[in-house]
Amino acid sequence: MAIREDHGRFRDIIRGRIKENFKKYVSHGEMVGKRENDFVKIPVPYIDIPRFKYGPKQRGGVGQGQGSPGDPIDGDPQDGSGEAGNSPGQHQLEVDISMEELADILGEELELPRIQPKGRPQADAVKTKYSGIAPVGPEGLRHFKSSYKRALKRYISSGIYDPKEPVIVPVRADFRYRSFKQVVQPQAKAVVIYMMDVSGSMGEEQKEIVRLESFWINTWLKRHYRGLETRFVIHDAAAKEVDEKTFFSTSESGGTLISSAYKLCQQIIEADYPWNEWNVYPFHFSDGDNWSGEDTRLCMRLLREFFLPNVNMFGYGQVESKYGSGQFLKDLEREFPSEESLVLSKIENREKILSSIKDFLGKGK
């Protein structure tokens, strides 16, 4: 019990340290590259437990020897000198934290509402539910408390219980086991489709911002949808689907036709994710340049006729670039001044990632 309490206090300390430095973790991504299944490794300042340190024997006690109040310890203070030291500095401690706990911290920090699944988002999932205590079962499910109570009752009823030597030895008939059954539970299905402009104006810094933001968006959505699926589309003048590594490492030098990405995204949804069964989240990141006004008008039509009536939300994040005009965000604001399913966010630099995440996830869609 004491170990569990100590572990709980340690987790509370770690959680507090993460919350204190949360903006740094979001914008600099110490944890993004350290994912292992459902956990991430987070570096936090080393936590040392206070303890007494004993010096050599026969050296006298505290306060012994000559001296008057105000005298410096060990003689007069001297100017510092000498070469650089070789002692270790402050260490970093890496701790494992679950993605669910990380999502909860994100939700607390940004005051995010819980997501309300859209349409008919249910699929059946089989789960194990522990429902009671049984006299038979596997040894791994033996219930200690129930087994002990059973043995104690037997000792008392047979008159062999000795309060001075309260030794209780359960026998096979005393053993009790947790019983379980498999139940079918409805489970929401969701997919995130990330689209990114990889033309020459989107540099490494812009793509790193997208990488960090997509990590946190995924973390929050996975908290609400088990088995979240993720797809990646890159585009310049043409669009193609790629894996995650390619998504964040590709650079092109051609022009930009945003509609190519929207058309491919539509094809992916229609082929694999019917919107009456799936919660669909398309996100598009760009610096706002598009090849022509005609292509921008085509994008607006695709949004109005296909995406906005059918998806949970469509997120557009405009990443600041000294080479980009930023015009596409202005066009969206003018065309859809009050459309709730379209969420727009301007990401000027890494420090704005946190506020952009709140833009996208703050409506609970």
Q: What characterizes the major β-sheet?
A: 6 strands, mixed
CATH fold descriptor of the largest domain: Rossmann fold
Q: Helicity range of the residues?
A: 25-40%
- CATH architecture level-2 label of the largest domain: 3-Layer(aba) Sandwich
What structural category characterises the helix and strand content? alpha/beta
Count of alpha/pi helices: 10
**Series of secondary-structure elements, N-terminal to C-terminal:** HHEEEHEHEEHEEHHEHEHEH
Give the strand line-up of the largest sheet.
8-7-6-9-10-11
* Radius of gyration over C-alpha positions, nearest whole angstrom: 30 Å
Q: List the uncertain runs.
A: none
The total of beta strands comes to: 11
> Which outline best applies?
flat
What is the mean pLDDT? 79
How widely separated are the two ends? 41 Å
User: How is the quaternary structure best described?
Assistant: single chain
Q: Provide the domain count.
A: 3
Short synopsis of the structure:
The chain is α/β, with parallel strands linked by helices and 365 residues long.
